[in-house]
């Protein structure tokens, strides 16, 4: 069996544009800790080991506690998340599983109560970005050895 395609080598201009877009979205103004929770949650749903490794590391760097990282799979029951975080996590759960869960009115209403219209777009684009990275990482078997990943 041969190794999988390296997307950075196969389509460098597209991957650079994707990385630039990802960076732009990450710098759009949402809180770093919130973005890392969103990235972690989508990566949990998608079972992306590379992204879970990377974003748990980044979440700690952004000040997240071990407790909040550990409780993220059960965020709906865990009392340690703010209403704003809960609205974002519900949105990421629904958009990541859009074929099954859709984006129902009550979930959007909770989002709209906590996020401005601009922030709603920023958050939605952040969810799109992490889901894209999850698919690249899983599809092409990418990993980040600099974050302690053992291949």
3D architecture notes:
By secondary structure, this protein is mainly alpha-helical. 69% of the residues lie in helices and 0% in strands. It has 9 helices and no strands. The protein has helices at 7-10, 12-26, 32-46, 49-61, 66-71, 83-96, 98-101, 105-114, 117-139. Helix 3 packs antiparallel against helix 4, helix 3 runs parallel beside helix 6 and helix 6 (83-96) crosses helix 8 (105-114). The protein is globular, with a radius of gyration of 16 Å.
Task: Give the strand tally.
Answer: 0
The number of distinct helices, counting runs of at least 4 residues, comes to 9
Largest sheet descriptor: none
Q: Runs with pLDDT <50, length 5+?
A: none
The percentage helix is 55-70%
| Global structural class | mainly alpha
Shape: globular
Q: How do the SSEs run, as a string of H and E?
A: HHHHHHHHH
What's the Cα radius of gyration? 16 Å
**Separation of the first and last Cα atoms:** 16 Å
Strand content: under 5%
The residue-averaged pLDDT reads 93
